[in-house]
Amino acid sequence: MSDTRRRVKVYTLNEDRQWDDRGTGHVSSTFVERLKGISLLVRAESDGSLLLESKISPNTAYQKQQDTLIVWSETDNYDLALSFQEKAGCDEIWEKICQVQGKDPALDITQDPIDESEEERFEEIPETSHLVELPPCELSRLEEIADLVTSVLSSPIRREKLALALMSEGYIKKLLGLFRVCEDLDNREGLHHLYEIVRGVLFLNKAALFEVMFSDDCIMDVVGCLEYDPALVQPKRHREFLTKTAKFKEVIPITDSELRQKIHQTYRVQYIQDIILPTPSLFEDNFLSTLNSFIFFNKVEIVSMLQEDEKFLTEVFAQLTDEATEDSKRRELVNFVKEFCAFSQTLQPQNRDAFFKTLANLGILPALEIVMGMDDLQVRAAATDIFSYLVEFSPSMVREFVMQEPQQTDDDVLLINVVIKQMICDSDPELGGAVQLMGLLRTLIDPENMLASTNKTEKTEFLSFFYKYCMHVLTAPLLANTAHDKISKGKLERRTRGFQTKNMQISLIIPCLGLSDLQEGSTKINPVCPDNFQTAQLLALILELLTFCVEHHTYHIKTYIMNKDLLRRVLVLMNSKHTFLALCALRFMRRIIGLKDEYYNRYIIKGNLFEPVINALLDNGTRYNLLNSAIIELFEFIKVEDIKSLIAHIVDNFYKALESIEYVQTFKGLKGRYEQEKDRQSQRLNRYRRDARSLDEDEELWFNDDDEDDDAEAVEKRMEDDFPDSYGKYMEAKKGAANGANGASNNGKAAAIPPGSPTVTPNNSSASSVKTVTLPATPVVKTALVGLVDYPDDEDEEEEDEEEEQSPRKRPRLSS
Asked: Which residues, in sequence order, are bridge partners of residue 75?
């Protein structure tokens, strides 16, 4: 069994002046040939790897703090600390360090770094003055003491000597005794001097002095001294706040007196640092580094002691989930757990892992399901913070819990659906809570943090679970806001029946969306006002999450989009007056097209889903803004990537409306790509006809006269795998104008098609059959042009003609 005396934790100080844990191991001091000197070695207790190898340099200043800490600086910007499990081990290594440096082990610091100018100054000082002599601790000498303390702060060596002098003969306690006398006599001058003295002693940055000053019998007098700042007309009332206003709430009685004392001390020291002491200047930043360390290690001890008290934590979670617990009591319990989790951030990774596993075993996640559904905003906010700690620490732990819920019971509300409901129902006008929850959901559904899991099937299982039980709850506001037909409350509930699960009824969603007042038979295009800023923000958040899904969930999101016709519903939001929401809808489509997936491309072509995008471009007119640039970029991407099926669809159906746009060459470029592909297909067709048979001229004429239709069908069958759907028109055109007339007679709507473009009948055959063009859901109707979407500003044709002369929208919108 390893010697626990030598068991240590290794810490390094980061750029934010916070201690980072580098691991736990066992320390030894031995001669290292490579470093040519006695060195401190720490080997990890888990695998024996080397955590630390540091030569004990004769010029390095080592400092002993709190009986179990040794702190030093390797370089100007690299501080190290060893935290010992036992005082005996710390003393043993400290003696070794002092032996190498030739120092007295009774000291708490071996030496301070001295710059060149410091050395030169001290060479001139007589040897007899190497000790700092403190004046007698008397009222009449307070000014002299204050001047002395203030004068030594600029000199590292004199600070150390003053600290040694203050530690001898109980000088600190004598000063605090004078404070009580001055306060009784209302001696303001003496109190002002004591403020300077105590503040200066804190800036000496010595752990041994802190142990005395922050002890139970001294700390309130220290706070009292700091109330009498000479710069203030009236003293502050910090002691009154700490003793009367700030109440120590024990949600569950703490029986350990040492733990209770440590909690009180940490709170008061944190108060001194954050509230009482002025913010250190750039030059004073290092003066309180030891105070930061003092608070840090106190928090580590508190969390460790609480975690070891199983009876205490068990009682906390039992009361938290008990239905009989009063709301005020539950609020205090949730706030305690939140602060407990915040303190846990000071733990080293291994201990933090054990900490959160302890919370999971005690039932933290079922408890969160209960408290996140409460009406109390403070409780919900605290529960959200706790949930964020859990998700950031271990998304896999949360995923594992939520996947087990449907198996346990059908009555409990799913945790993720509770989180989604909180996001949807956030009452904050700026949706601060919704933004935080959206980030947590994004972390949970991110496949990147599922890859390192030991459970190799976690990704597949969780995503299947999420799309089965949760996705319809997430998209409920989006689908409710993009409904087009006559709707009643009863019909809405029937339509959104897919939004409910065994665990969450639609009644949870409707009030959040503002649909509870919807009257029977009302005829609203959008049940929720799309111009409502808060609703628009919520829809933007949902679209951001769905866009993330498109990028990272290939199969599941594709199936969901196809089944729910989701892209069509999203593109309705291109009509929103909120440009940021229209851009979110456009970004969603851009991510889909960016995948260059032919399944998606066929879905877009079949649904004629470029129509709302092009309408938005035309409706934007000549305004050069972000929406204009984003739409142009979408078509530029299609051109550069040469996505043939989409190019053919755009040119065939929309080029007439876009050809007037000349300030970019994007649409002319699309037309050029389209023509090039037609030429290539034509050349390929001619080459096939030349090489198919060697026929003389008469035979060729005979075949052409008698079997023209058979030849055409044979050619089509031969080329069916080479031609994209869009270019099937080329062959269909050869069948004569009769087919075109049949296509034109179909009922429905279509976007404007340029003159001369061949029109064909829809093709519902399988992929193995002869390919023809899949028409949009709106075939050509050669009638008066009518807007695709009814806008408030649409008037009859005469008014449109008058407005064209004045409106910046110089290009006509697409018509149907």
From this structure: 78
Residue position matching structure tokens 């309408």: 615
State how far the alpha carbon of 250 is from the alpha carbons of 255, 367, 735, in Å.
Answer: 10, 19, 88
Closest C-alpha to 545, from 613, 630, 443, 465: 443
How far apart CA 713 and CA 378 sit, in angstroms, is 73
DSSP, collapsed to helix, strand or coil, labels residue 811 as coil
Range list of H helices, 595-643: 598-606, 611-620, 626-641
146 and 94 in a single domain? The answer is: no
Same domain assignment for residues 676 and 537: yes
Closest CA to 271 of 192, 350, 352, 214: 214
- The CA–CA distances, whole Å, from 298 to 25, 68, 261, 263, 592 equal 21, 12, 11, 8, 52
Per-residue pLDDT reduced to its tens digit, 291-303: 888 888 888 888 8
In a domain, 32, yes or no: yes
Residue 67 — left, alpha, or beta (φ > 0 → left; ψ -120 to 50 → alpha)? left
Q: What is the dihedral of CA 128, 134, 135, 140, to 10 degrees?
A: 150
Domain boundary among 77, 101, 125: 101
Query: From CA 678, how far away is CA 684, in angstroms rounded?
Result: 10
716 to 145, 414, 598, 730, 758: CA distances (angstroms): 105, 55, 22, 10, 17
Residue ranges making up the domain that contains 16? 7-101
Residue 543 sits in the same domain as residue 674: yes
SS3 readout for 383-403: HHHHHHHHHHHCHHHHHHHHH
Q: Which of 788, 708, 778 is nearest to 744 (CA)?
A: 778
CA atoms of 639 and 670, how far apart (whole Å): 6
Low-confidence ranges of the chain (pLDDT < 50): 1, 113-130, 283, 410-412, 485-511, 513-529, 694-695, 698, 702-703, 706, 708-812, 815-816
Say how many domains are in the chain: 3
Please give the distance of CA 541 from its chain centroid, rounded to a whole number.
13
* Cβ atoms 203, 289 nearer than 8 A: no
| 776/772 Cα distance (integer angstroms) | 13
Half-sphere exposure of 587 (CA within 13 A, CB side): 18
Quick check: pTM over 0.85?
no
Q: How far apart are CA 191 and CA 185, in angstroms?
A: 10
**CATH code of 38's domain:** 2.30.29.30
Give buried/exposed letters for 788-814 (b at 16+ CB in 10 A, else e): bbeeeeeeeeeebeeeeeeeeeebebb
Residues 537 and 673 in one domain: yes
Max Cα-Cα span within the chain: 133
What does the block give as tokens for 290?
């030891």
Distance of alpha carbon 39 from alpha carbon 312, whole angstroms: 43
Count of residues in the chain: 816
